[in-house]
Queue: 2 jobs
Job 1
Amino acid sequence: MLWNTLLLALRAIRRNLMRSFLTTLGIVIGVAAVITMVTLGNGATQSVSDRISSMGSNLLMLVPGQRFGPGSEGAAKFKTADVEAIRGQIGAAKHVAPVINASATAVYQAENWSTSISGSNDDYFEAGGWELASGRVFTESEQRSGRAVCVLGETVREKLFGRQNPVGADVRIKQFSCEVIGLLKSKGQSAMGTDQDDTIVMPLRTVQRRLAGSQDVGRLMISVHDGASIDAVKEQLTLLMRERRNIGESEDDDFQVMDTRQIAETLTGTTKILTMLLGAVAAVSLLVGGIGIMNIMLVSVTERTREIGIRLSIGALEREVLLQFLIEAVVLSSLGGFVGIVLATAASIFLAALMGIPYLFDPGINLLAFLFSAAIGVIFGYFPARRAASLNPIDALRHE
Amino acid sequence: MSASEPLIRLKGITKTYGIGQAAFQALKGIDLAIESGEFVAIMGHSGSGKSTTMNILGCLDTPTGGSYEFQGVHVERLSRNQRALLRRYFLGFVFQGFNLLARTTALENVELPLIYRGDPAAERHAAARAALEHVGLQGWEHHTPAELSGGQQQRVAIARAMVSRPKVLLADEPTGNLDTRTSEEIMDLIGTFNREHGITVLMVTHEPEMAQYASRVINFVDGRVEKDQRNRGEI
């Protein structure tokens, strides 16, 4: 019975090619939209967390003020002495890099480029995961005396020097001339979407004296030895800084220690919400596809009711008619689901490449979209048939 | 004719549409016996209950009361599925509106009853081709109803009804949509099946010319059998 009914179902699909095509199309578009959106969203999330993990998982960031709550404004900056204190008292700290940021225009011959300048020490390169493409980092005496030397990011090199090697050349920044001693390897976009290579790094003291005009340190980057507990180090850092900043027992911290996991959670949280939003929008299109199928089914219900009447009159059992309609619906909606998945995979790979994010195959969403499309097809293809097949054959035949 | 049980026996068949005040009694107690091999024409004005009787005889509709025996089996006690099987193995239908599956070739339309019966593909094709040839449609196997004339469509319908070799052919105004010449051809064809293959034919018609092909004419008036007579020249 199954084999014969399958034959009948396939014949019914074939003789209503246009209807079958439209039914399938609704599902194809819905399934493809949902899968593409979710896949791209996952890729974007992955890309963000990749970039954060490229910062190193054992990195801590010490920033003044609390992001939330009172005391975020006007909280005291850090001092150069804090660096020595941390080095001296927290054994698990591998690198401690004080960072101060400024922005200025760098000029080389006829070219100029406005960029951000970081003042720090040699630990900055290690803690920040920077590698040198050529040249060298700061010497001990350059750091101590605040000499005008700098290490360029790839973008700054490109803007000022084109393809030339900048090492040894002098770049003018504001009123002083600065010798280029090194060139950083490119790191690409940051997790926040900014160009990390658009930077110049100088010794901390040079920036403090010549650009910032103060002894403050904006933030501290601390990398922790492998195997050391990040949480324990955070605890120690908090205690140390509370002590150094004279914070009373009842007062809140006026600084914050963040690890990369926290940063990652904040940022990937945003893209995850976006993914869900896109997925929801696409789910609506799947639903609209389903309504389209319902529409087609209802329009053809008169013809199909008479067809059911004919089949019943020549001796088809009710369950054979129903099985035929069920097979039709399942074949069409799974075909639609399958084509949708193929289309979504092609579109996702293409768009992911275009957007520079990784393509991640998500079996869960593929399965979910497929099952949902099959369910829509079965519900809208099968249930109208069920009513018709329960009629007296003569009533089905006379259906107007 | 068999002296024992007739092929079909109706006793006090009633059919009521609607309920309460709006109820309408279409059949007011039909008693009828039809022997195997008869060619019966059922006549009457519209609303006389002739089509309703035909649908009940064909198990396409159920009576409100009375008993219907088919080869001694009480049809009114059969389940829905059993009635479907009765249609499948013993009955063939020809309708006024042909009722062929649209966009489906003549061959596939004729094959349909055999598919439900579960015949193997090769046997099924051969039987369907033979049936189409029998009604004079060789060469038209792969045409869809839209590509066939009314007479040809009715021939396909007859082939579909006869391909499963039923006991009874039920024809509801088979020539109602056809011109006179084509009607005569169709009636000749039905007559042939009756005479040469011994198939019992029950035909509803309101045209006296068509009723002349029958061996027995039953007249319906207002839901009752008014007249039941044998035609001259009966076999």
Job 2
Amino acid sequence: MAITKILVPVDGSQHSLKAFRAALDIAKNKNAKIYVLTCLEKENVGAWYIDKRTNKKIMNDAKKFAREFVTKLEKPASDANVPIAFTVLETKSTSNQIIVFSNSHNIDLIVIGSHGRSGFNKFLLGSVSNKVSQMAKCPVMIIK
Amino acid sequence: MGFQNILVAFDSSSYSNRAFRTALDVADANKSKITIATVLTGIYQPSIGFSMKYNKDDLVKYTKVIKKTVSNLESIAKKKNIKVSLKILQNPSVSTAIVNHVNSNKYDLVVMGSHGRTGLNKMILGSVANNVIQKVKSAVMMVK
């Protein structure tokens, strides 16, 4: 089984950066390509009761911010000679989007942090990583 | 980082065979050591449940079977110059045995199949895999 495409879902948390570093390590050895995916959840914006335009503005700002953040990851990747692609998506459900993305891009391995931005319990898995590990069709590596 | 010490939870099911092959793939790049762990759950007696008391003959027999299976894997690993060692754990609960062993030894990565010998549903994880993924302190890779 050759690993040529690695998906790293990133949300800016410590865990996801750790996962990115681990993925880089594998990709360097395997000459694999890394796909970095950031999902913005539409439902979580929460300004719908003020004005729909506010929502849109927040979403656009968030997208811009996310793009800026993920492009910071480009330097370590190019230092290690690993091809990398960034995707920022608006979605209703992060975990579903990750699974759909991995299926449609024929991903060989998903490397994901055990918790996202809201994880506090070190003992159990976060909800997104739990769902991804259960539903994904490819191997999933969970970094703690 | 880099995964120097890899544990493969093995029960000779097709999933765990695939897990072993994936572990070889990862180990090949990092020049790491692989430990294959198998758990003997004891003999089931309806009156007291699983007991850890083995006949000496039985234990010898089981160990022989395990060693035979693992020697096949070892020969595959030898072609790639990877060291493989075997660890036979004894515990009535498979997941507890694996979790305790991993947490008390220095492993960087646990590779296991998403289902064991009794996996039915392809969509969700097997019970052992789920248990291990939640409780283990090192990174975990689920192979499907």
